[in-house]
Amino acid sequence: MYTQSFNVPDGTTPGPQAVPAVADPALQAHFDSVIDADGKIEPRDWMPEAYRKTLVRQISQHAHSEIVGMLPEGNWITRAPSLKRKAILLAKVQDEGGHGLYLYSAAETLGTSRDQMFDALHSGKAKYSSIFNYPTLTWADVGVIGWLVDGAAIMNQIPLCRCSYGPYARAMIRVCKEESFHQRQGYESLLTMMQGTPEQKAMVQDAVNRWWWKCLAMFGPPDDNSPNSVQGMRWGIKRISNDALRQKFVDATVPQAEVLGVTLPDPELKWNEAKGQHDFGAIDWDEFWQVVNGNGPCNKERLATRVKAWDDGAWVREAALTHARKQEQRTMKEAA
Ligand SMILES: [Fe+2]
Ligand SMILES: [Fe+2]
After folding, report:
1. How far is CA 85 from CA 105, 133, 190, 196, 287, in A?
2. pLDDT on residue 10
3. Which of 25, 57, 102, 311 has the smallest set of CB atoms within 10 Å of its CB?
């Protein structure tokens, strides 16, 4: 899915560095010139320590968000209403797992290990997108997540395809193609339900009411309360501000809601002719920070599910390692 559109301070620390961290003026000047020319920084290039740390935090939070993001929808795989919907949902949830793996790989190129990242997630030190700490109450939630949550993710992630860090930018190109399918399948599922019974229509509207504001918060704090954004822009990690992305999302989504026949739950939402964009109401940031800080309805459940999956998979990791060791020994014996 989704991205952590912004990155919030958490308890993670980057691992050993692969390149010297000393700020040699010549190295710094070369780095700055690459950034100024809109070029790419690659894993072996020198980079400022703060740039590395910011990327490790952002990419690992993004990876965790993809993996935890499998859970709310994964709960509906066994209850999908038809074989077609089940096949689509299975494919989507598997895609999210793949996104997590590309992103963990991208973060590893910065000198942090996958074990360190998993440890940070499982111990509760690392953050992931708060949107996944809400429950999926009905089948309509699956469609709304595709339409709005993956839709917001696309808005966030397309600019990341131009991120200055090469491995992250390249991972995002494929991720964005898959997110586009996620958004469309969700919207198409909702269109079908909106042609159904009054109960189905009410279920879609209820899901939209519950997810709308949370999706707007996915873009992160307002620009005047987002101190890291300026540095992220300077480094070419962040290309478009939180508020600008949020506005683009609202403007793109309103006509889609009209076609669908649902109301977006904001009495202040209206077209502003002078600005050429929509005005909309205030986001409840207190609720947002409550959930970021661990007090959402599903924070504990999501973390416990991930920890259990990791623990349950221990025998697979051990068996794979034992098998690899045996093969290595056999190869060495044959070579001797
Ligand atoms: Fe994804
Ligand atoms: Fe997705």
Report:
1. 30, 24, 12, 16, 33
2. 63
3. 25
CA of 96 to the centre of ligand 1 (A): 4
| Alpha carbon separation from 148 to 75, 115, 190, 207, 213 (Å, rounded) | 18, 32, 11, 11, 10
Element containing residue 272 per DSSP (H, E): strand 270-272
Distance CA 175, CA 179 (A): 6
CB-based contacts of 275: which residues, under 8 Å, 6+ apart? none
Q: Which pLDDT does position 20 carry in this prediction? A: 52
Contact in structure between 93 and 77 (CB atoms under 8 Å): yes
For residue range 242-253, list pLDDT tens digits in order. Answer: 999 999 999 999
Question: What is the 31 CA–ligand 2 centroid distance (Å)?
Answer: 33
| C-alpha of residue 48 to centroid of ligand 1, in Å | 29
Q: Which ligand is nearest to the CA of 150?
A: 2
Note the pTM of the prediction, 2 decimals: 0.90
